[in-house]
Amino acid sequence: MHKYKIIILYLSISLLLISNNSKAQNDSSANKSRDIMNVKKKVTGVGGIFFKTKDPKKMREWYNENLGLVTNEYGSLFEFRKSDSPEQKAYLQWSPFNENTKYFAPSKKEFMINYRVENIEDLVKELKKNGVTIVDSIETYEYGKFVHILDPENNKIELWEPIDHEFSKLYEGKTTK
User: Per residue in 61-81, is it b (16+ CB within 10 Å) or e — as a string?
Assistant: First the structure.
């Protein structure tokens, strides 16, 4: 009988230890989830698509006539709604550039992608710490802040912290939806 009490005691202690370990792992997972949620967003979406062409004006006209893009001197401004704030408008710029543009330099590619970001100053500090090539300094305009970086294959990337309501004022009713 004494032997059974020891076995029951041993099993009880084992179950208690397993239960506490499982609870600690769950608490740890919950803390990790909270930590991930508190991390600042970096890229929040695509902000622009830029490409080289022989005749940007002709290209804008073709896209307007054949695909219905609402075009202006810069290309077409696509309007959309933010998924986490559907009442807010956001924008993506589509722009054909002259094939001789230096705007994509030092990249030799025929295109450049613009990414929408949050907290551009903090992001640039983090990118510098990570050894990412920062091509220029942050420039501020009424519609947002911009900076250019290079990826590992020397593709120039434009980062944009937008001020979307300024685009709404400038281009209301003149966007591709």
Answer: eebeeeeebbbeebbbbbbee
Q: Are 90 and 116 in contact (CB under 8 A)?
A: yes
Length of the chain as a residue count? 177
Q: Which residues make Cβ contacts (< 8 Å) with residue 43, sequence separation at least 6?
A: 115, 116, 117
pLDDT (tens digit per residue) in 148-160? 999 999 999 999 9
Cα-based angle 25, 42, 123 (whole degrees, multiple of 5): 110
Residues 6+ apart with CB under 8 A from 167: 77, 89, 91, 143
Beta partners for 105? none
Find out whether 158 and 148 touch, Cβ atoms under 8 Å.
yes
Q: What is the dihedral of CA 159, 165, 171, 174, to 10 degrees?
A: 90
pLDDT digits (tens, 9 = 90+) for 56-65: 999 999 999 9
Q: How far is CA 27 from CA 17, 20, 22, 31, 60, in A?
A: 15, 10, 9, 6, 56
User: Is pLDDT at 16 greater than 80 in this prediction?
Assistant: no
Q: What number of CA atoms fall less than 13 Å from residue 138's CA on the CB side? A: 16
